[in-house]
Structure prediction request, 120 residues.
Amino acid sequence: MLIRYKKNFEKIAMGLLSFMPSEKDLKKLQSTIRQYETEKDWLLYLWKEGEDVIGLIGIVIDSEEIHVRHISVNPSFRCQGIGKRMLNGIEEMYAEKTVVASDETSSFFEKCHEEQVDPF
Ligand code: COA
Prediction:
């Protein structure tokens, strides 16, 4: 399930964020986590299964749209549908707004919204 980021999850959140290609530099990573902690329109959600935090999705809210800025899943848990479930969770939570990708998340976003083509 998706839960809101809290400061006591800082280390695990930074570890997950660091899988984003744009967050490899430690200074950039620290500045990004600070933005999520301080800017009111920047919201970070974590995917928790039991006691384990295994995914992260970060959004920026404007008047009409929700921009998905970051999305990341622990490599040990990839390809089990968690990324897609996090995206769906945000779309359900903010159903009154349009959820859009940022440059950094667009390829996975598009993959999740590919039309299911019936082979028959
Ligand atoms: N662009 C497009 N598709 C991607 C992708 C990417 N960057 N990364 C993984 N996928 C595809 C997988 O190949 C897989 O495809 P398949 O079902 O046809 O085999 C599918 O997404 C898996 O979906 P799902 O299980 O819901 O996603 P996940 O839980 O494995 O998480 C990411 C997907 C992208 C969050 C995860 O791979 C990750 O943390 N990547 C590193 C961080 C990153 O680059 N984030 C930005 C992505 S644009």
Remarks:
- The pocket of coenzyme A is lined by residues 19-21, 71-73, 78-84, 104-105, 107-108, 111 (CB under 6 Å).
- Helices lie at 10-17, 26-38, 82-93, 106-113.
- The chain has a mean pLDDT of 95.
- Strands lie at 2-4, 42-49, 52-61, 65-73, 98-101.
